[in-house]
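testing teh design pipeline on a random one, pls ignore if ur not involved
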């Protein structure tokens, strides 16, 4: 049976793994196991920041921010632009369906501030489903197209507020640093 204490204990053990690939495999197993149930989710996890459109509720974060696992909530109609994570990411669906678009960067990265993207695939991530983004080249955008708050479980190699991330405007052909406010810190 999945409990929040079990998820946190597992996350602490995973945070001690030094090999990136082993850590990703273990995090994928944890997320896959945890999203088979939703009765461990807390009431506070349903609260989402109106200004940002999403909130990361930390379950466990390594003190040096090199590993973190969060329940993430998205408001209806809100999302995140195409962006990177600096390392691997595992997302598991808990409540509702979040639409993830995976992008491929197609330019040669020779012009600062400019970037071209094309859609690689679109994944509607529902409860119990897992999406793995294994490395630095991964770019995704997220949108909650449903009429209710959606929740998912996110494990990151690097805490999103403490690593270099970039976001893209595929229509304008631009790339910028992606800075999110650590309003969700505990
Ligand atoms: Fe992301």
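output:
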């Amino acid at each position: 049976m999945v409990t929040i204490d079990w998820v946190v204990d597992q996350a602490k053990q995973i945070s001690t793994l030094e090999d990136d690939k082993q850590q990703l495999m273990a995090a994928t197993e944890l997320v896959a196991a945890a999203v088979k149930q939703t009765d461990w989710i807390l009431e506070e996890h349903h609260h989402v920041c109106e200004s940002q459109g999403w909130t990361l509720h930390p379950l466990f974060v390594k003190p040096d921010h090199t590993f973190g696992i969060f329940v993430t909530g998205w408001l209806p109609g809100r999302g995140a632009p195409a962006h990177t994570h600096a390392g691997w990411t595992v997302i598991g669906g808990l409540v509702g369906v979040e639409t993830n678009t995976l992008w491929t960067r197609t330019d040669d990265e020779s012009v600062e501030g400019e970037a071209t993207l094309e859609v690689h695939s679109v994944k509607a991530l529902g409860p119990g489903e897992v999406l793995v983004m294994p490395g630095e080249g991964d770019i995704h955008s997220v949108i909650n197209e449903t009429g209710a708050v959606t929740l998912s479980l996110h494990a990151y190699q690097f805490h999103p507020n403490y690593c270099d991330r970039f976001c893209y405007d595929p229509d304008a052909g631009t790339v910028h640093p992606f800075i999110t406010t650590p309003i969700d810190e505990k």
